[in-house]
Amino acid sequence: MRQASKYFPPAESADCEGLVGFGGELSPDWLLDAYSHGIFPWPITDLEAPLAWWSPDPRAVIELDRFHVSRRLRRTCRGGKFRVTRNRDFAGVIRGCAMVPSRRGQTWLTPEMIDAYVRLHQLGHAHSVEAWREDELAGGVYGVAIGGLFAAESKFYRVRDASKVALVHLVEHLRERGYALLDIQQLTPHAAGMGAVEITRAEYLERLAAAVELPIEF
Q: 3-state class of 28 per DSSP?
Protein backbone atom coordinates (compact mmCIF):
# COMPACT_ATOMS: atom_id res chain seq x y z
CA MET A 1 0.00 0.00 0.00
CA ARG A 2 1.37 3.41 -0.98
CA GLN A 3 1.96 5.91 1.78
CA ALA A 4 0.26 9.28 1.44
CA SER A 5 2.28 12.36 0.58
CA LYS A 6 3.08 14.84 3.33
CA TYR A 7 2.54 17.86 1.10
CA PHE A 8 0.50 16.93 -1.97
CA PRO A 9 -2.91 15.57 -2.85
CA PRO A 10 -2.84 12.17 -4.58
CA ALA A 11 -1.25 12.21 -8.03
CA GLU A 12 -4.51 10.72 -9.34
CA SER A 13 -6.24 14.01 -8.49
CA ALA A 14 -4.36 15.83 -11.28
CA ASP A 15 -6.44 17.55 -13.93
CA CYS A 16 -6.56 16.48 -17.57
CA GLU A 17 -3.24 18.23 -18.27
CA GLY A 18 -1.53 16.58 -15.32
CA LEU A 19 -1.57 19.60 -13.00
CA VAL A 20 -1.66 18.59 -9.33
CA GLY A 21 -1.48 22.03 -7.73
CA PHE A 22 0.33 25.31 -7.17
CA GLY A 23 2.60 26.73 -4.50
CA GLY A 24 4.83 24.97 -2.03
CA GLU A 25 8.61 24.95 -1.73
CA LEU A 26 11.63 23.76 -3.67
CA SER A 27 13.22 22.44 -0.49
CA PRO A 28 14.79 18.95 -0.51
CA ASP A 29 11.98 17.63 1.69
CA TRP A 30 9.27 18.83 -0.69
CA LEU A 31 11.12 17.61 -3.79
CA LEU A 32 11.82 14.14 -2.41
CA ASP A 33 8.23 13.82 -1.26
CA ALA A 34 7.00 14.86 -4.70
CA TYR A 35 9.18 12.44 -6.68
CA SER A 36 8.36 9.61 -4.28
CA HIS A 37 4.67 10.10 -5.13
CA GLY A 38 4.89 10.55 -8.90
CA ILE A 39 4.86 14.36 -8.88
CA PHE A 40 7.45 16.84 -10.15
CA PRO A 41 7.81 20.64 -10.37
CA TRP A 42 7.63 22.39 -13.71
CA PRO A 43 7.23 26.16 -13.46
CA ILE A 44 4.84 27.95 -15.78
CA THR A 45 6.77 30.38 -17.98
CA ASP A 46 4.90 33.37 -16.57
CA LEU A 47 7.33 34.57 -13.89
CA GLU A 48 4.43 35.88 -11.81
CA ALA A 49 2.73 32.47 -11.64
CA PRO A 50 3.20 30.30 -8.53
CA LEU A 51 5.21 27.11 -8.71
CA ALA A 52 3.28 24.32 -10.45
CA TRP A 53 3.45 20.58 -9.70
CA TRP A 54 2.56 17.88 -12.23
CA SER A 55 1.78 14.20 -12.66
CA PRO A 56 0.92 13.55 -16.32
CA ASP A 57 -1.11 10.64 -17.62
CA PRO A 58 0.27 8.83 -19.54
CA ARG A 59 3.83 8.87 -18.19
CA ALA A 60 6.94 8.24 -20.30
CA VAL A 61 9.58 5.78 -19.14
CA ILE A 62 12.62 4.12 -20.63
CA GLU A 63 12.43 0.39 -20.04
CA LEU A 64 15.98 -0.45 -19.04
CA ASP A 65 15.91 -3.88 -20.67
CA ARG A 66 14.58 -2.49 -23.98
CA PHE A 67 16.81 0.53 -24.45
CA HIS A 68 17.84 0.79 -28.11
CA VAL A 69 21.22 2.15 -29.22
CA SER A 70 21.79 2.60 -32.94
CA ARG A 71 24.90 1.17 -34.59
CA ARG A 72 26.23 4.64 -35.28
CA LEU A 73 25.77 5.75 -31.68
CA ARG A 74 27.30 2.54 -30.38
CA ARG A 75 30.36 3.18 -32.54
CA THR A 76 30.54 6.72 -31.17
CA CYS A 77 30.37 5.43 -27.60
CA ARG A 78 33.22 3.01 -28.27
CA GLY A 79 35.30 5.34 -30.41
CA GLY A 80 36.85 7.41 -27.66
CA LYS A 81 35.49 10.73 -28.88
CA PHE A 82 34.11 11.49 -25.40
CA ARG A 83 35.28 10.80 -21.89
CA VAL A 84 32.34 10.01 -19.59
CA THR A 85 32.18 10.72 -15.86
CA ARG A 86 29.55 10.63 -13.13
CA ASN A 87 28.88 13.43 -10.65
CA ARG A 88 32.00 15.33 -11.62
CA ASP A 89 30.22 18.55 -12.62
CA PHE A 90 26.55 18.42 -11.66
CA ALA A 91 26.26 22.22 -11.57
CA GLY A 92 27.81 22.45 -15.04
CA VAL A 93 25.32 19.96 -16.45
CA ILE A 94 22.20 21.58 -15.02
CA ARG A 95 23.38 25.04 -16.05
CA GLY A 96 24.14 23.66 -19.49
CA CYS A 97 20.58 22.37 -19.71
CA ALA A 98 19.31 25.85 -18.86
CA MET A 99 21.69 27.91 -20.97
CA VAL A 100 22.27 25.92 -24.15
CA PRO A 101 21.54 28.41 -27.00
CA SER A 102 18.41 26.66 -28.26
CA ARG A 103 16.75 27.00 -24.85
CA ARG A 104 17.74 30.44 -23.61
CA GLY A 105 14.72 32.47 -22.68
CA GLN A 106 12.38 29.48 -22.76
CA THR A 107 13.80 27.04 -20.24
CA TRP A 108 11.86 25.86 -17.21
CA LEU A 109 15.13 25.80 -15.24
CA THR A 110 14.87 29.04 -13.32
CA PRO A 111 17.70 30.08 -10.97
CA GLU A 112 15.59 28.84 -8.06
CA MET A 113 15.16 25.44 -9.71
CA ILE A 114 18.89 25.18 -10.40
CA ASP A 115 19.74 26.02 -6.80
CA ALA A 116 17.22 23.46 -5.56
CA TYR A 117 18.61 20.60 -7.63
CA VAL A 118 22.20 21.52 -6.81
CA ARG A 119 21.22 21.27 -3.15
CA LEU A 120 19.66 17.84 -3.81
CA HIS A 121 22.92 16.80 -5.45
CA GLN A 122 24.94 17.98 -2.45
CA LEU A 123 22.71 15.83 -0.25
CA GLY A 124 23.23 12.78 -2.49
CA HIS A 125 19.79 12.65 -4.09
CA ALA A 126 20.51 14.10 -7.57
CA HIS A 127 23.16 12.89 -9.98
CA SER A 128 24.73 13.73 -13.31
CA VAL A 129 26.54 11.97 -16.12
CA GLU A 130 28.97 14.15 -18.07
CA ALA A 131 30.48 13.73 -21.53
CA TRP A 132 33.76 15.59 -22.04
CA ARG A 133 35.62 16.49 -25.22
CA GLU A 134 39.18 16.97 -24.09
CA ASP A 135 38.76 19.16 -20.99
CA GLU A 136 35.51 20.84 -22.02
CA LEU A 137 32.05 19.77 -20.89
CA ALA A 138 30.40 18.69 -24.15
CA GLY A 139 27.07 17.48 -22.80
CA GLY A 140 25.34 15.58 -20.07
CA VAL A 141 22.19 14.41 -18.32
CA TYR A 142 20.98 14.76 -14.73
CA GLY A 143 18.15 13.51 -12.57
CA VAL A 144 16.85 12.56 -9.14
CA ALA A 145 17.43 9.13 -7.56
CA ILE A 146 15.29 7.60 -4.80
CA GLY A 147 15.79 3.90 -4.13
CA GLY A 148 15.39 2.14 -7.48
CA LEU A 149 13.86 5.18 -9.20
CA PHE A 150 15.88 7.47 -11.42
CA ALA A 151 13.87 10.45 -12.66
CA ALA A 152 15.84 11.87 -15.59
CA GLU A 153 15.16 15.59 -15.70
CA SER A 154 17.04 17.08 -18.64
CA LYS A 155 20.04 16.73 -20.93
CA PHE A 156 22.06 19.02 -23.17
CA TYR A 157 24.90 18.98 -25.65
CA ARG A 158 27.42 21.41 -27.07
CA VAL A 159 29.04 18.76 -29.27
CA ARG A 160 26.95 16.44 -31.41
CA ASP A 161 26.09 13.13 -29.71
CA ALA A 162 27.46 14.18 -26.32
CA SER A 163 24.08 13.99 -24.55
CA LYS A 164 23.26 10.69 -26.25
CA VAL A 165 26.54 9.17 -25.10
CA ALA A 166 25.84 10.40 -21.56
CA LEU A 167 22.36 8.83 -21.69
CA VAL A 168 23.74 5.50 -22.90
CA HIS A 169 26.21 5.51 -20.03
CA LEU A 170 23.43 6.39 -17.57
CA VAL A 171 21.22 3.51 -18.71
CA GLU A 172 24.12 1.06 -18.51
CA HIS A 173 24.97 2.29 -15.02
CA LEU A 174 21.36 2.02 -13.83
CA ARG A 175 21.17 -1.54 -15.12
CA GLU A 176 24.36 -2.47 -13.30
CA ARG A 177 23.11 -0.95 -10.05
CA GLY A 178 19.76 -2.73 -10.25
CA TYR A 179 17.44 0.23 -10.81
CA ALA A 180 13.82 -0.63 -11.58
CA LEU A 181 12.36 2.56 -13.07
CA LEU A 182 13.77 5.25 -15.38
CA ASP A 183 11.24 8.07 -15.61
CA ILE A 184 11.50 10.65 -18.40
CA GLN A 185 8.09 12.26 -17.74
CA GLN A 186 7.05 13.02 -21.33
CA LEU A 187 7.63 11.12 -24.55
CA THR A 188 9.58 12.75 -27.38
CA PRO A 189 10.25 11.33 -30.86
CA HIS A 190 13.96 11.03 -30.03
CA ALA A 191 13.26 9.13 -26.81
CA ALA A 192 10.76 6.87 -28.58
CA GLY A 193 13.46 6.02 -31.11
CA MET A 194 15.64 4.78 -28.25
CA GLY A 195 12.89 2.59 -26.83
CA ALA A 196 10.95 4.90 -24.51
CA VAL A 197 7.26 4.13 -24.06
CA GLU A 198 4.22 5.61 -22.37
CA ILE A 199 2.43 3.86 -19.52
CA THR A 200 -0.65 4.88 -17.59
CA ARG A 201 -0.27 6.96 -14.45
CA ALA A 202 -1.79 4.07 -12.50
CA GLU A 203 0.87 1.64 -13.71
CA TYR A 204 3.59 4.23 -13.13
CA LEU A 205 2.51 4.82 -9.53
CA GLU A 206 2.36 1.08 -8.84
CA ARG A 207 5.87 0.56 -10.19
CA LEU A 208 7.12 3.69 -8.44
CA ALA A 209 5.90 2.51 -5.03
CA ALA A 210 7.95 -0.68 -5.41
CA ALA A 211 10.99 1.04 -6.89
CA VAL A 212 11.50 3.65 -4.18
CA GLU A 213 11.68 0.91 -1.53
CA LEU A 214 14.68 -0.80 -3.16
CA PRO A 215 17.98 -0.49 -1.22
CA ILE A 216 19.97 0.97 -4.13
CA GLU A 217 22.57 3.73 -4.17
CA PHE A 218 23.65 5.51 -7.31
A: helix
What is the value of pTM for the model shown? Answer: 0.95
Q: How confident is the model at residue 105 (pLDDT cuts 50, 70, 90)?
A: very low
Query: How do residues 81-104 score in pLDDT, each as one tens digit?
Result: 999 999 999 999 999 999 865 544
DSSP 184: E
CA proximity to 18, closest of 49, 36, 44, 46:
44
Percent of the residues in the chain that have a pLDDT greater than 90, as a whole number: 89
What is the DSSP annotation of 166-179? Answer: HHHHHHHHHHHHT-
Q: Select the CATH number that applies to the domain covering 11-54 from these four: 3.30.70.120, 3.40.50.2020, 3.30.70.3550, 3.30.1300.10.
A: 3.30.70.3550
Separation of alpha carbons 187 and 204, rounded Å: 14
What angle separates helix 111-122 from helix 90-99, to the nearest 10 degrees? 160
What's the mean pLDDT in 1-5?
81
Give which of 63, 38, 35 is closest to 171, Cα–Cα.
63
3 state SS of 59: strand
The per-residue DSSP string of 123-144 comes to TTSEEEEEEEETTEEEEEEEEE
> What helix, strand, coil percent values describe the chain, rounded to 5?
35, 25, 40
CA distance 191 to 86: 21
**Would you state the pLDDT for residue 47?**
58
